Amino acid sequence: MKTLQNFALGALIAGMLLGLAGCSGMSKQDTNTAIGAGVGAVGGAILTGGSTTGTVGGAAVGGIIGHEIDDSE
């Protein structure tokens, strides 16, 4: 079972990296949102042992935080 979780986490990270490759035409805020969601999903999966709820919750929280980050200061 642990092998399956490791594979799923690796697939999630690979999908996130491939998805971010298409961010070239996005605004800075959209990019921050996507990166925050990806990092939050990985963090949620790690903290909850790979549970779906933790992964989705982490993605939601990370996306919100990433959306609110403002680099213009």
TrEMBL record:
InterPro entries: Gly_zipper_2TM_dom. It comes from the Bacteria. Pfam families: Rick_17kDa_Anti. Residues 32-69 form the Glycine zipper 2TM domain. This is Glycine zipper 2TM domain-containing protein. It comes from Marinobacterium aestuariivivens.
